[in-house]
UniProtKB/TrEMBL annotation:
It is found in: Cell membrane. InterPro entries: G-protein_gamma (IPR001770), G-protein_gamma-like_dom (IPR015898), GGL_sf (IPR036284). Guanine nucleotide-binding proteins (G proteins) are involved as a modulator or transducer in various transmembrane signaling systems. The beta and gamma chains are required for the GTPase activity, for replacement of GDP by GTP, and for G protein-effector interaction. G proteins are composed of 3 units; alpha, beta and gamma. It comes from Huso huso. Residues 3-68 form the G protein gamma domain. Pfam families: G-gamma (PF00631). Its main location: membrane. This is Guanine nucleotide-binding protein subunit gamma.
Length: 68
């Protein structure tokens, strides 16, 4: 690598590091608490927890039509 390309590469690295340093971080404990609160608030709307009624289930088995 030539000297100018090394300097340009280092400038890009410094710019990226400055950008990453300026990002506001959230503590894992705070994020986990917020996620848990969100899940508890929306649990009544979750079809995996409450189940899906057979009348609104688009994946229910189709009825067989027979002409016997």
């Amino acid at each position: 690598m030539s000297g100018s390309s090394t300097v340009n590469a280092m400038k890009k690295v410094v710019q990226q590091l400055r950008f990453e340093a300026s990002i506001n971080r959230v503590k894992v404990s705070q994020a986990a608490a917020e996620l848990q609160q969100f899940c508890l608030q929306n649990a009544h709307q979750d079809p995996l927890l409450t189940g899906v009624s057979s009348s609104t289930n688009p994946f229910r088995p189709q009825k067989v039509c027979s002409f016997l």
